[in-house]
Each structure stands twice: as structure tokens, then as C-alpha cells.
Amino acid sequence: MALFDQYPVVLSNSLSGKKETFNPIHPGKVGMYVCGPTVYNNVHLGNVRTFLTFDVISRYLRFLGYTVRYVRNITDVGHLESDADEGEDKIAKKARLEQLEPMEIVKQYTEDFHGVMRQFNILPPGIEPYATQHIVEQIEITERLLKKGLAYEVNGSVYFDVKKYNQSNHYGILSGRKIEDLMESGRSLDSQDEKREKIDFALWKKASPAHIMQWPSPWGKGFPGWHIECTVMSTKYLGDTFDIHGGGMDLKFPHHECEIAQGTAANGKTPVKYWIHSNMLTVNGQKMSKSLGNSFLPAELFLGNHPLLDKGYSPPAVRFFMLQSHYSSTLDFSNEALQAAEKGYRKLSNALKLTRTLTHPGARDVNVELEVELKRLTDECYLQMSDDFNTARTLAVLFEMASRINDFQSGNLNPGQVGKNVFETFLGTFADFMEQVLGLQEEQHPNGHLLDNVINVLIDLRKKARNDRNYSLSDKIRDDLKQIGVQLKDGKDGDMTYTIEN
Questions:
Q1: Global confidence as pTM
Q2: What b-and-e string marks burial along 184-214, b requiring 16 or more CB atoms within 10 Å of the CB?
Q3: Residue from 455, 401, 454, 443 nearest 425 by CA
């Protein structure tokens, strides 16, 4: 039996608002699309949390045995300054201000984005298309919508007719918004506005002569709207209907709502089976924003050079911090929370290190209760992650497992009390969920190899001091190491191990 049959995944579907048992369109295969970065600004932590969420989802689905085609796009055109289809393209504006070509901006910011993803151990997608590489397809789908009467052209721009679409479909099905409310609220049309209704959105925009990024089309030179790119790229690589689409909560409306309308109208099918959205970040209880001065870039978080930070935190510790909360929950940054996460990560990292050294001596006196507990903890890892990818509860199980691992190392528990297969499966599951599923690697210290050697020299000196009954020196080595954050642990057989606490 495949692991995905043994531990079926239940996920929260934003489309239905309910938890549903995951049932891919093609058995054993998953198509997943995530809205990628818009490369005109530095990567912020909200981006990181979103991409971390889907990194873990794709990791776990693969771990269960699914073949996952993961597509994450790069938005390098079409993102206007306003959701009302007004203003300058943000990438073109950045290029103009910095006196660079737009593709220089794209290259620079894409490389920075990939660098941040590597720092957080976020794996790259299988396919990473660029919007500018799919202009032809975006023109084609716009023509298709025009022929179906669900779009209209005005002065070289093409708009999606939301009101007409809503006559036979439900615009607002994802966000829960009603078209009547949308038409009554917000900005009113003025005499210069080309759109029939203010809720209509651009599929193609006419470019002014000064606009840097523009392409020829049946309606004249212009550029695609923001929403159409994801409809084109997701369906091109995953089919007219695919399994999972996601992004940050801020994309649910209007971006994802427009994607559903475009895909349904163009292809006659609901484009996505399961929608997943990650929630926002706050700082000390306030929304993270530049205007409040409480937003910080990943580099500032690592170095600690921000007024709101007491110190810097390593990328794995920050990754661990984000995994402590379910992806759908608001996540609040604070120094206290980050420091607690750092300690928690180190505890699990130390246990991960021990899994590489512990061995089974061969079963002797089997403790049935201990075997049952180890099997339960092993099973719980799968059950918690399969319940809507709940990393928070999975980490809680891993902490329980880490305590048992420490007990085996210290001699409080004897590996021989459980069967060899149970013991090795227990250790292997802990290591697999840490590294393969959650992407939490063993902590690496600067000059780590040298540090290990120095501490081992001091451990040998302490062993000699104990053998010579020089207990004052033995205690001094232990206490001095503890003061600098190195905790020695004495085993029953005379072995000594250590963990780094801070």
C-alpha cells in the first residue's frame, strides 16, 4: 500500500470553505501552481511564508509517493500600480527610475529571490515560467474570450465582462463576495474610464508611446493584464483543470477570483479543484508594513540590523519559527517568539544529530509499552501532517520523539528494550520528517568542524580528570562550557555528548 493510501491527506479548500479529502484528478499525480513573485521589489517575509507553505506541501506530497508537477511563475510584466487597471507597470516604472532595461530589473530581482529561497532551504519548482515568455498565449486566450462575448475591446484595450460572465457563473465563488456589493462599492466610473463596469478587469492594455514594455497584438501595441498571465501559464503546464492552486491570502481577491472567471469562461471548466491560501504576518501584533516601520527584509532578520530586533537569527531557525504556526493562521513576529523558536530548533537539531549515532544492540528484554509508544509517535507524524499539512502539531510530535531520542542517548532508555525494526523506523521517521518533509537541516555552526574538535578535546580532558578523581577540574570544565552555552550530558556508560544551547 502506498503511503498516500495509508495516510490520506485532508486539506482546507478555500473554494468550498471546508476540509476535504485530497483526491487528485490523476491517481498518484499532483498538479500544483503557486503565484510567484512580482520582480520589482525586494523579497519580504510575507513572500517567504507563502513559498515556504507550498514548499512543505510539495515536499510532503512527494514524501507520500505522489509525483508532483510544481509550477511557480515569475511575474515580469502586467502588474499595474492599481487593481483598477490604472497607473504604470511596476517593473517598467522601476526600470525607468533606475535607468535600466526592464529585463535587467527582472534578472536582478529574480536572482535575489532565488538566493533568498536557497537560504531558507525552499526547493525550486519543477517549472518556473515567465509571463513575458507567454505573450502569444495571453493574446490567444484574450481572442477566445472576445469570440465568446465575455470580453470587449475599447481603444486598443480589452476587458473581461464580469457582469455578463456572472449571468451563467458565479463571480465571487472563491472570496464569497457578491457582485451586487462590488458594483455598489468602491470607485465610480468617470467620463474617461473605458470599462463598462468598474468591476471589469483588463485582459490586455493599450500601451502609451512612452511605455517601455509593449508587444504587437490584434488591438495594437500593448501589454497583458496581471490576472491573465497565471491563467495562461497554469493551464499550459497543468491542463485546463488541475489539483492545487495557491498563494498568499491577499491574492484571493481580486487575482484568484479573476483567474477562476477567466479559466472557466475560456475553457468551459472550473480551472482548479483545491485552493489553498497562506495567512499574513504581523509584528508585535501589528500588520507588517513599510509605513509602520515594522517590516524587515530576510537579510536584516539574519544579521539583526533592524531597530525591532535584539539579535540576528539563522535561516533554519526562522524557517522553524514559521513552521510553528499552521499556514492558515496569522503569524506574529517578536523577539521573544524568535528566541523561543531558536531554542526549539536547536533541541530538534541536536536530536537529529543523535539519530546518526544511535545504534540498536539487538533485542533483549522487550518493553511492550515502550514499543507501543514509539509506534504511536511514528504514526502521529504522518497523521498530523496529513491533517491539512499541520506543521505545528507535527513539530509537537517531533519534540516528543526528541525526548525519547535523548533518553536513548543518555541511557535512561535502552534501545534493546524495543525491536530493531521499531527502533530504526522511529529514528528514520524523525530524521525524514525533519529533513525531507519540513526541510529542517541539522544546525551548522560557523567553523563547526573546528568547534566540534575543540569541544571533544575538552570532553577528553574531563574524562581524564574523572578517571584521575580530579572532580574539581571535571566540574569546572562542565560548568565553564555551560556558561558559554555548551551543555555536556553524561551517559551511564561513561560516554559524554554535548548540545549547544545558545
A1: 0.87
A2: eeeeeeeeebbbeebbbbbbbbbbeeebbbb
A3: 401
Helix (H, G, I), strand (E, B) or coil at 36: coil
Q: 134-160 pLDDT, tens per residue?
A: 999 999 999 999 999 999 999 999 999
- Alpha-carbon gap, residue 76 to 22, rounded angstroms: 32
The Cα 432–Cα 64 span in angstroms is 11
Of 314, 309, 318, which Cα lies nearest the Cα of 341?
Answer: 318
Of all helices (H) and strands (E), which one includes residue 490?
A: strand 486-490
- For residue 130, what are the β-bridge partners? 74
Which residues lie below 8 Å from residue 138, measured CB to CB, with a gap of 6+? 131, 203, 204, 224, 228, 229, 232
- Nearest to 279, CA basis, from 218, 343, 325: 325
Residues 43 and 30 sit within 8 Å (Cβ to Cβ): no
Within 189-326, strands assigned E span 201-206, 222-224, 242-248, 272-278, 281-283, 286-287
Task: Write down the number of H helices and E strands in the chain.
Answer: 17, 15
Q: Three-state SS for 210?
A: coil
